[in-house]
Amino acid sequence: MDTHLEFNSNDDRFGFIIMDTNKTLFGILHGNIRDILMEFTVDLPKKRRYGGASATRFTRIRKEKKLNYVRKVSEMATQCFIRNEKVNLNGIILAIVAEFTSEFNADDVFDPHIQEKLIQRVVISYGGDLGFNQAIELANETLVNVKFVQEKKILAQFFNEIFKDSNEFCFGLNDTMNKLESGQIDTLIIWKNCDLIRYVLRHIQTKQIKIIYLQIDKEKQIDNELEQLEKISLIHWLEKNYEKMNIKLEIVTDKSQEGSQFLHGFTGIGGILRHKIDYQSLNINEKNCENIDSNIDDDYSAFFLD
């Protein structure tokens, strides 16, 4: 299924709650991959009544079991999606069969952290894995819009730093990678179609390590005295290592006005830097400043010389 390939970078994560009258599935749509976190079944009384139980009593029992089912779905959603009191998802889609529409009309069904991340509710015809596929298709437009809004928001922050002349931004390959190596970058932004390759090279005689970034058709420019130790797309390398370097990675398109400006005016790669600490305003003496400085700027050079 390719419905989400256009809008999801590998860093986009959307939670899905797929609920029918037999079971509930909790899943994650991450880039091009669907992950099923967990699922559980339920045994609800059927709509038709059998035996001698009165219609009123039967209806009451079924209603109570449905409410208990909804509560369990809410509890399991908390377990699946909340870590350290945070929901690390771009959004959550609630997909339910028509029978449960009224049960989810209230705003307090889920934990508030889950509730604020709900971006759409869709009605599905199936549960389980088939329902997961159907929910992705039904929510396609919403998922595209969420990505588009997120992209515009992060680029607005980038341009705001430039407008303020805050010195808390960088752009261009060399400046951005230097700032990344020295641990100054908080959020690295890169165009999704960036075709730069990261080469780790070693001089045959001196054994000195060197890292360069070239487009694939420029590989012939590499000196013959340098042997290749590693060759990987810059975007893929960032995706593999950004969490280890404690930065946020934003992969953007050029489909918005901001994205086009970022690509054509700022080379398609840049970053928002970590905030500087004003030691004078904090009344910290110079000696203590030196001690703090040595600790706050992490050195990530190991990522560039491995």
From TrEMBL:
Molecular function GO terms recorded: translation release factor activity
eRF1 domain: residues covered: 14-143, 148-277
InterPro entries reported for this sequence: eFR1_2_sf, eRF1_2, eRF1_3, Peptide_chain-rel_eRF1/aRF1, Ribosomal_eL30-like_sf
Protein name from the UniProt record: Eukaryotic peptide chain release factor subunit 1
Native source organism of the sequence: Adineta steineri
Lineage, opening ranks: Eukaryota, Metazoa, Spiralia, Gnathifera, Rotifera
